[in-house]
Amino acid sequence: MTIKRQIINDGFRISQEKMETGWNMPFTHYHPASEIYILETGERTVNIGETFYLTSAHDAALFLSNVPHSSSGTTPFSGICIHFSEAYLHLYFRKYATSQLMKCFQTPILHLSDTDFKCIKEIANCFKDYEADNYLKLATILNILCRSQAPKDAKQPADEHWRNKASEIIEYTEHNYTSIQHVSDISNALNTSEGYVYSVFQEHYKVSPKKYVTELKLHHICHLLEYSSKSIKELSDLAGFHCYEHFLRTFKKNMGCTPTEYRKNWEQTASRG
Fold it and tell me: Sorted alphabetically, which PROSITE patterns does this protein's record hold (predicted)?
């Protein structure tokens, strides 16, 4: 999956967002500022490094500076986004105090009580850049997070869930490749993100979903060319190639010969056997 660096200012800022539909980040990204994302409503799958977490309302995802992360989900959602640098904390707090405030980042996902969420929400609602007491607002937020707990078992790192989802993606692809034309055909069928589908095939096969599906289709049509007398055009349709010209180019590129040549070579080999 593509990982991109984003530039976030090194001070401290709070923003809020509300999405009326689900949204999948198109790439994994990182930035020099640390980030806290608190989900107000909805559900999101958060990817931190190589681990996936399932989050819901009042869960906070914590990303240290320069750690790759992304999120995805199919439901409407809203949240509070907080960016700051340790350099900003060092302007106002001694080294020990800063280390204590940053301890909350030892747990990547935390759950806020209704009272604690309300307090942070009030800070976000009245936040303005460059106010003199902004460092105290940040300290308040970090102190709240330090006393918060990781979510219950159902909200712990979703490794098992995503292992099952990965198996489901691979199984679905291998049973339905003749009808798959785009990555979205897989992600929509299994209610997951295109980004996660890409990551599954990269992790398991070191290829893109498109490449894997093409290889399945080519294997299928080679078998059909060997044992069926139907026309090559008919066989390309059966294997899931909906554009005949594209199929011919793809076959030649991957197999080193045309379908006609492949069939002829197979027949000659079989007759000698």
Answer: HTH_ARAC_FAMILY_1, HTH_ARAC_FAMILY_2
